[in-house]
Amino acid sequence: MFKRIIKKRISNFEIISHIIFVAGGVSIIFLLLITAYKSFLSTPTNIELQTRIRRWIIDTPNLYKSTIWGFNVSYIVILVLYTYWSTKRFLNKRHLDSILAKIDYFAQGHYSERIPVSEKDKYHVVAQNINNLLDSIEDSFREKKELEKSKDELITNVGHDLRTPLTSIVGYLDLLKNKDSLSPQEYDKYLDIVLRKTGRMQELVNDFFEYSRSQQTLIRLNQVDIPLEAFMEQVVADFRWEAEAKGIDLTVEVEPHDIQAYLDPDKFARIFANLISNAFKYGHGATVIHLIAREISNCNYKTLAGRPNNIPLLKAKYSGSKWLVFEVRNNGTLIAEDELEMIFERAYRADQSRTNDIPGSGLGLSIVRNFVHAHGGQTYALIDQDQMVFRIVIPQTE
């Protein structure tokens, strides 16, 4: 159907026919004027004014030839200009009709086609805008399908991830029902397992709900100005005991020390918590987890070292914008270069065969990415000086 509409564009025959019709009309009008003029000069009359004009034109040397020459020049000029204007108007009208016909076709749900755009066409801006609108519609449909697919996969993963600890809990509860057949040591052991599995289920459910909230198109942010160094030290304090138990030096570095950051403290507390937990789980052999925050200028942001080529530069709202750069570094096992781009995807785990036994929903880094995007920032992973680095860049205005 659309191809027939495209083929319905103006043919050369139609253009030539229109030009011939217009040129013929102009020529006939001028022919009638010339004939009337010659008849006026050659036909005797009793009207005194007409007689004087005839005699003046005929008796004046070369005046008659000059008037005929003027008629011819006027004819050529008007013929060219009017034919050009009329043909251009005809083409524009036909192009507009063609665009309207294509819009009717699109209205039937055919969003994959596009209107050919030519810079010579008066309506090329209209056609381009319609094509852009169709691109947006297709993107919306694609995002909707991906979201539906993601939800289906999420439900499947939720069922799978919850079934495993739930099955264990049911089994051990059956054993605990026969308390008399168990020794005190066995009873305490099974009860600890049930509590541990229950905590695992609670963690999974919390992650799923957090991820679902972070995926919302409009996340409500409660952004306030906070002293960044004190805030980060407070977040890290919750992980000091676990870090000491694992033999890891957990440090914070903020430059300059008096940075006032405008962000949502609850969301960023979850961001840092997820990144630190990720370093605990997957940074095998790490002895240091280093949290860094620094303020940089717009110029330095554009040349930020280590930024992967596939990470686009964000646009600053104002020329004087500042940027906050956060990094969570660890000196543990490095992730393969070809996996760095994928680790923020939902439920993705680097080296699946090696990490399937590690507890977690696989949603931590996806939640980080979604919360960072809600702040208008970007996050990515890189390897720098044999350290695994998770970097966050957030725009700030002076």
From TrEMBL:
Residues 130-157 form a coiled coil. It catalyses: ATP + protein L-histidine = ADP + protein N-phospho-L-histidine. Its EC number is 2.7.13.3. GO terms for cellular component: plasma membrane. It is found in: Cell membrane. The chain crosses the membrane at residues 12-37, 68-85. It is a multi-pass membrane protein. The keyword DNA damage does not apply. InterPro entries: HAMP_dom, HATPase_C_sf, HATPase_dom, His_kinase_dom, HisK_dim/P_dom, HisK_dim/P_sf, HssS/ArlS-like, Sig_transdc_His_kin-like_C. This is histidine kinase.
